[in-house]
Write a structure and sequence with these properties.
The complex is a heterodimer of chains A (287) and B (665).
Chain A lengths: L1 H15 L1 H29 L5 H4 L6 H46 L4 H40 L12 H35 L5 H13 L1 H27 L6 H36 L1
Helix pairs in contact in A: 1-8, 1-9, 2-4, 2-9, 4-5, 4-6, 4-9, 5-6, 6-7, 8-9
Chain B lengths: L4 H14 L14 E10 L4 E11 L6 E7 L11 H4 L5 H9 L6 E8 L11 E2 L12 E10 L4 E11 L8 E3 L2 E4 L5 E2 L1 E3 L10 E3 L14 E10 L3 E4 L2 E8 L2 E11 L4 E4 L3 E7 L2 E7 L7 H18 L7 E5 L12 E2 L2 E3 L12 H11 L15 H20 L6 E3 L2 E3 L1 H10 L21 H20 L1 H15 L6 H15 L9 H7 L8 E10 L26 E9 L7 E7 L4 E6 L5 E8 L3 E6 L15 E3 L4 H22 L4
Parallel strand pairs in B: 1-13, 19-20, 20-22
Antiparallel strand pairs in B: 1-2, 2-7, 3-6, 3-10, 4-7, 5-6, 8-9, 9-17, 11-12, 13-16, 14-17, 15-16, 18-19, 21-22, 23-24, 25-26, 26-29, 27-28, 27-30, 30-31
The chains are: A mainly alpha (287), B alpha+beta (665).
């Protein structure tokens, strides 16, 4: 039951690294706030002094959204582009922090100084690791998409005997894809710890070690992955259903929705740390 | 020539049945063009072998020396037809379909004789009245050996063959699904002087263009279709009988007072029958989509009920709805007399209401196109626009104004608002005026202008005259022109008439000004509240009489003096409409004004104890053609909660995306 111990350790480790958790959340919040400044000015200059801004409180209004985009869409496009830029920067920052997280979790040093130092030390290695696995993930996705198109007759409707062919092959291929995708994610996670442990500039060795490790400990590794994935699904579904019940037609409702959403984001970041904590535990146990 | 023994054998039956060609119910129309057809479908060669008896009545005061026929299938004969040269949006899909196995099509008339037995094929020839394209063979002119005198009729016997196209827009075959529309040689319309403002008698028979199809005379159709056993057929009108003949089945259909006849065949159809107030409803689906029946039936009953209440009870005994298979999706949103298609797919979530929208839209065409037989090619707005207008009404009534098009994951979109945003979301909403012919939308805009813009200005007309008068307009127009051929001017006449009766004080000069703007211009409408000011009225200061002392300037505070409030309104667009203006004051009072909307800038000023808090132009959104409702109002103290709500949603969505992308690290 090493996977269960690892999962529990992941949670315990989270609460032992509250500063780290909070820091990651604040980085996330900070970037979101920067992106939102532009939108705030945009909304104030477009619907700010119009009665329709109150109309939007009642619920989604296609008329308002449509008029906004049709009449002031160019400025919104700039804000969207800016947001994409912010997402790319955040992605790089996340790569930067991953080395620090792996190092802190592996060496159980909970001071932030060690964290930031390790972030810098492992940044380029983690960047390469991310790029390699992104290419690998894209390749696997591409192969499955190619297979799906092949089976589903290029998804060209005039070739299809029945519409159900589209869903039939999706149901067959999705679980197989999920199996390979989960394997790639698992290998990537263990590679991080191999990189930190071996402290080598080249990362091919740690990746191969990680592949060997994952194959050798396939059952606990994959069950731990599934446990973490299930936790993610539960958190996500709970957010989706509960947030629907929060009325956002008044200031207090908007505030409540904001607080609840931030709790969800906090949990999403926690899940990442829980996952890596559990992986670090299993790595130390099984290596 | 491929005249089979079967065709010859039924020849006699046809002759006998012609004797009673227009009988059965009380005529709803003039029944000018009547067809009695015997068809054999060869599923191996994808050909039709056919015999038509055509009875055409000359109800004009003109002597007719020639006839004109549509031969629609020749549009898909080769790459040089007008349809193929201007196929626009269909290009990629059509070319893909045609490349496989050379699935081009054609129609050939092998024999055509008149009542006296004169053979007319020798003199017949193709014409291209719209563009002079010598390679277009979709209009056939037939000089007559014996002229048809006023009030007389002519009976023609026609033997013809056709090759059915592969998957084409609207029609054709794919696998063993056949959707047979615009498939037989069909007479054009002879418009006597005055009909649709014709300056003199003329044949109106346009080439087949990729946009716009319908314009034909009413008549009675008796159609016998012979298909291999196992095939199930649906067609316009009523199924009279189905008899076995060796390895084939003969399906006979009878339809009265319709302008066209369509049919479909497949061995896979699952047919569900239902009924609404005496109207038989036949739903044809493939088995995998049979579970969608309730959605189709509930929707169509709602539409039947609404149209019955607002215009007229659906007058035909049957209505057939076809949900084509996925490989027949080219024909998935079409309307033909008493037969419509509405694509329903399992992969589209229930909250995206395409099935309901198509069902309602295509059904309403039974009223605008089929019963009120305007000219879709010459005046597409009268057909598609009126239908889109009622589509919004029926769907919003059936499923709610905010969610009749999409109701999914918290996103709600109503049909009426969807049509408005679609039009104004076009890259160039001014691309063409509403009164163009279908093929004259050379650079796009056919759909947005003919469908959406018309619905928008009809809603604007409703806003101006009120829903009761609008209902009266549509009711009068429908009943005056049902089973006839109106043109745009006829609709304008009805509007003028009802408005003169109900709103003579408001619109004393009629409604030409309205149609000039919405129908014959490309301009847009945009009213805005430019500014609101509230100034305390200070006591007079300075010299007023030179022998008196100077009155000093005094500052005043809120509550110590009266307020002069001014609101300035601007007209940013070119279109001009009278608009309601609601001016709200700090004591809760609202003053309502009507601005004629003509000047570029206009103001209202008030003096009193209270300040203006907000101003709204057209608070009820009567002027639905206003392209921007956001700038129609202004508040002195902005309501921040609306912005906060959007900001919080944006922010948390972005945070969520951030955490999601970091999962790939």
């Amino acid at each position: 039951m090493s996977f269960l111990k690892a999962y529990i350790f992941g949670w315990q480790n989270l609460f032992g690294n509250l500063k780290l958790w909070l820091s990651l959340y604040l980085i996330n919040l900070g970037f979101a706030l920067i992106a939102s400044f532009g939108l705030s000015s945009y909304l104030n200059s477009t619907i700010g002094d119009s009665l329709v801004s109150a109309e939007g409180l009642a619920g989604f209004s296609y008329t308002i959204v449509g008029d906004l985009l049709n009449n002031y869409g160019e400025s919104f496009g700039v804000i969207l582009n800016q947001s994409i830029g912010i997402l790319i920067i955040y992605f790089c920052i996340s790569i930067f922090t991953t080395g620090g997280i792996a190092s802190v979790f592996l060496q159980e040093k909970r001071d932030m100084g060690s964290f930031w130092a390790a972030c810098g030390t492992y940044f380029w290695r983690m960047l390469r690791l991310t790029v390699y696995f992104l290419i690998l993930s894209a390749g696997v996705l591409g192969i499955f998409f190619f297979l799906y198109r092949k089976f589903a007759l290029d998804m060209f409707p005039f070739q299809l005997e029945e519409e159900s062919i589209l869903s039939k092959y999706l149901y067959i291929l999705l679980p197989i894809y999920f199996f390979f995708a989960s394997l790639i994610f698992t290998i990537q996670d263990y590679s991080k710890f191999h990189i930190v442990q071996n402290s080598q500039w080249l990362i091919a060795g740690p990746i191969f070690k990680s592949i060997a490790f994952t194959i050798r400990n396939y059952i606990p590794c994959i069950i731990l992955f599934l446990l973490n994935f299930s936790t993610f699904l539960i958190v996500y579904l709970a957010y989706y259903f509960i947030s629907d019940y929060i009325p956002t037609s008044s200031f207090s409702g908007i505030l409540l929705f904001f607080i609840f959403s931030q709790f969800f984001i906090l949990m999403r970041i926690a899940l990442k740390l829980i996952n890596l904590g559990g992986v670090s535990y299993l790595y130390r146990m099984k290596r | 020539m491929r005249l089979t023994a079967y065709t010859l054998s039924v020849f006699t039956i046809v002759l006998l049945s012609l004797i009673d060609l227009t009988a059965k119910g009380d005529p709803l129309s003039d029944r000018i063009a009547n067809y009695n057809m015997v068809i054999e479908l060869d599923t191996a060669t994808k050909r039709l072998d056919a015999f038509s008896e055509i009875l055409w009545k000359n109800l004009s005061t003109d002597t007719i020396t020639k006839l004109q026929f549509h031969l629609y299938y020749n549009a898909f004969k080769n790459t040089e037809s007008t349809f193929m040269l201007k196929r626009d949006m269909f290009a990629d899909m059509m070319d893909g379909g045609l490349q496989n196995d050379c699935k081009w099509s054609w129609t050939e008339i092998t024999s055509l004789t008149d009542t006296a037995g004169n053979e007319l094929t020798n003199e017949m020839h193709f014409i291209a009245p719209d563009d002079g394209n010598p390679n277009d063979q979709t209009v056939l002119e037939v000089p007559l050996a014996i002229a048809v005198l006023p009030g007389e009729q002519i009976e023609l016997k026609m033997k013809w063959e056709a090759k059915i196209p592969g998957t084409m827009p609207r029609t054709g075959h794919n696998k063993d699904f056949y959707f047979m529309v615009q498939w037989f040689p069909k007479l054009g319309v002879y418009e006597a002087e005055g009909v649709r403002n014709a300056p003199a008698g003329r044949w109106n028979c346009h080439q087949y263009h990729s946009k716009g199809e319908y314009y034909a005379d009413f008549g009675v159709y008796d159609v016998a279709i012979k298909v291999p056993k196992g095939f199930k057929l649906g067609g316009s009108g009523e199924l009279v009988s189905m008899k076995e003949e060796g390895e084939m089945n003969v399906w006979k259909f009878h339809a009265e007072d319709i302008i066209d006849f369509a049919w479909t065949a497949s061995p896979h159809f699952e047919i569900q029958k239902n009924e609404w107030e005496g109207v038989k409803i036949n739903l044809f689906t493939y088995p995998e989509h049979a579970y969608l029946a309730d959605r189709y039936l509930n929707t169509i009953k709602s539409a039947l009920s609404y149209m019955s209440e607002h215009l007229m009870k659906y007058p035909y005994p049957e209505l057939t709805i076809v949900n084509p298979p996925i490989h027949g999706m080219y024909s998935g949103a079409m309307e033909y007399p008493t037969l419509i298609t509405a694509m329903g797919l399992s992969s589209i979530p229930k909250g995206i209401k395409i099935l309901e929208t198509l069902t309602v839209h295509e059904f309403i065409h039974q009223y605008f196109m089929q019963m009120v037989a305007s000219h879709e090619v010459e005046e597409p707005w009268m057909d598609e626009g009126f239908t889109t207008f009622y589509e919004g009404r029926v769907l919003d009534n059936y499923m709610g104004e905010q969610n009749s098009t999409i109701d999914l994951l918290g996103i709600n979109v109503g049909n009426k608002e969807y049509n408005r945003i679609e039009f104004f979301g076009e890259s160039n909403p001014k691309i063409a005026s509403n009164n163009r012919r279908s093929w004259q939308f050379k650079h796009g805009g056919y759909g947005p202008v003919s469908y959406n813009k018309t619905a928008i200005w009809l809603n604007t007309l409703e806003g101006l005259v009120g829903i009761e008068s609008m209902d009266e307009i549509m009711h009068t127009y429908f009943h005056r022109w049902k089973f006839k051929h109106p043109c745009g001017a006829n609709f304008e006449e009805v509007v003028d008439e009802v408005v003169a009766k109900n709103h003579s004080a408001q619109f004393e000069n009629g409604m030409k000004w309205f149609f000039d703007q919405v129908l014959r211009s490309t301009e847009t409408c945009d009213y805005t509240v430019a500014s609101i000011s509230n100034e305390l009225i200070r006591p007079k200061a300075g010299f007023f009489k030179l022998d008196e002392n100077c009155l000093p300037l005094k500052n005043v505070k809120d509550g110590e003096a009266q307020v002069k409030s001014t609101v300035i309104l601007n007209r940013l667009g070119e279109l001009k409409f009278p608009v309601d203006v609601a001016i709200h004051f700090s004591n809760g009072e609202t003053i309502n004004k009507i601005w004629d909307g003509i000047d570029r800038s206009f103001d209202y000023s008030f003096e009193g104890d209270y300040k203006i808090t907000s101003v709204e132009i057209d608070p009820e959104r009567k002027i639905y053609i206003d392209k921007n409702f956001i700038n129609n109002s202004k508040v002195v103290k902005p309501e921040q909660n609306g912005i906060r709500k959007y900001l919080v949603h944006f922010m948390t969505s972005l945070q969520s995306i951030m955490t999601n992308i970091s999962a790939f690290i």
